[in-house]
Design a protein that fits this description.
Layout lengths: L3 H7 L1 H13 L8 H11 L5 E4 L6 E6 L2 E11 L26 H17 L5 E9 L7 H7 L12 E8 L8 E3 L2 E4 L1 E10 L3 E2 L9 H18 L7 E10 L5 E2 L2 E10 L2 H21 L3 E10 L2 E3 L1 H15 L4 E3 L10 H5 L4 E7 L25 H20 L1
Parallel strand pairs: 3-4, 3-5, 5-16, 6-15
Antiparallel strand pairs: 1-2, 2-4, 6-16, 7-14, 8-12, 8-13, 9-11, 10-12
Helix pairs in contact: 1-10, 2-4, 4-10, 6-7, 8-10
């Protein structure tokens, strides 16, 4: 039988057509009926057990191999972002203000392509493959909801391993993968804070309780907190991205509000960041004679690669594409991913794939989430190959 990569190249045009169809018609969040329909059409006729989500437009497809064995899960996310596209590509978004600016259209198309390749090799599969087509990765906790609806038990048993990949518009050249054992991506949580005083005339601040100086002090103190409370080798990032107070120059407002993102790379640092920041906010406010409504809004946990599964994925990449196509990342990325929910339940690996267009400097091209981010179709066959190789190889290893 031809190599998997040869077969992926043979259907690359069809994978590209699916990717372009999804890109032209992007959807946001958990409800992606048009994207779901495209995936179901792409899987139609394959020997798969297909179910769709109850509370979200997910697709779960189980392939039962010709030989008994365990289960491996492969995930591709399907949702887009509220971004107005400015790429100028022929298949640009036709939905105003919505764009596949993070490359999820590629993930979905590659996973559908891998389903075709693995169905053609059904007889040699020593076990089952669960294909997880997931909505709502961009902040909607779609993976958590799919887990609650039973995706991890879709084949009748928990997977022995789970894998996902993510295209990146720059950083490394197209076709180069990278990953690391342990923390791969950060936890991402949010602080939502209101400092409450009482207003008055700006010329007589002693007759009011001004929330603005206290808020400024808190914002600065949060930056000091992360440099003095946390280990430099287990860092925390707190960035205040929104701050609002007052309406005009001569009025002291009743309150001031800010929100901040908090990134961390371990469960211990995450818990400490929550407790320390909330205490600091409330105590500084109290020192000014004010009160603080401070809420910690939990986001995605740390994405943690199982060391053995990352090493397994690395070996599969090197043997499929060559040593020059994998880079061991020295540090985790400060982005976040809801595949973290899967990896908290099942050992697995999350790897990145460079997808920068030809003739550009991968270090300077528009990044993921940019309205000008472009992902090269040339990597579609590579990603399709890796998904299929990981399933075949991991099931064979589990059966040996």
């Amino acid at each position: 039988m031809p190599r998997i990569h040869d077969d992926a190249v043979a259907i690359a045009g069809e994978i590209s057509q699916l990717r372009h169809a999804i890109h032209r018609d992007p959807e946001i969040g958990l409800d992606l009926p048009r994207t779901q329909a495209k995936v179901l059409e792409a899987l139609d006729g394959l020997p798969l057990e297909i179910t769709t989500g109850r509370g979200l437009s997910s697709v779960t497809a189980v392939l039962r191999g010709g030989r008994p064995g365990h289960t491996v899960l492969l995930r591709g996310d399907m949702d887009a972002l509220p971004v107005a596209e400015r790429t100028g590509v022929p298949y640009s978004s036709q939905v105003d203000g919505v764009m596949h600016a993070c490359g999820h259209d590629l993930h979905t198309a590659m996973l559908a392509g891998a389903a075709r390749l693995l169905c053609a090799r059904r007889a040699e599969l020593a076990g089952n493959v669960t294909f997880m087509f997931q909505p709502g990765e961009e902040g909607w906790h779609g993976a958590r909801q799919m887990i609650q609806e039973g995706v991890l038990d879709a084949s009748g048993e928990r997977p022995v391993a789970a894998y996902a990949l993510h295209v990146i518009s720059g950083a490394h050249p197209a076709g180069v993968y990278w990953g690391r054992p342990g923390p791969m991506l950060a936890a991402a949580d949010t602080l939502e804070v209101t400092i409450r005083g009482w207003g008055g005339h700006a010329s007589a601040p002693s007759h009011a309780a001004d929330p603005i100086p206290a808020t400024c002090e808190i914002v600065t103190a949060l930056q000091t907190l992360v440099t003095r409370r946390f280990d430099v080798f287990d860092p925390v990032v707190i960035t205040v991205g929104s701050l609002h107070a007052g309406t005009t120059s001569n009025v002291i407002p009743d309150d001031a509000r800010f929100t901040a993102t908090v990134r961390s790379f371990s469960a211990a640092a995450r818990t400490s960041a929550r407790d320390s920041s909330l205490r600091l906010i409330r105590e500084i406010a109290a020192a000014h004679g004010l009160t603080a409504d401070a809420e910690w809004v939990e986001g995605y946990p740390v994405t943690v690669n199982d060391p053995a599964e990352l090493a397994f994925a690395e070996q599969a990449i090197i043997e499929s594409f060559g040593e020059q196509h994998f880079v061991r990342a020295a540090n985790p990325d400060t982005g976040a991913e809801d595949f973290s929910y899967v990896l908290a339940e099942v050992p697995g690996a999350f790897v990145m794939l460079g997808a920068s267009p030809p003739g550009v400097d991968a270090a300077t091209v528009p990044s993921n989430h940019s309205p000008e981010a472009i992902f090269d179709d040339a990597v579609l066959a590579d990603g399709t190959t890796l998904y299929a190789e990981l399933a075949l190889r991991r099931l064979a290893a589990a059966a040996s």
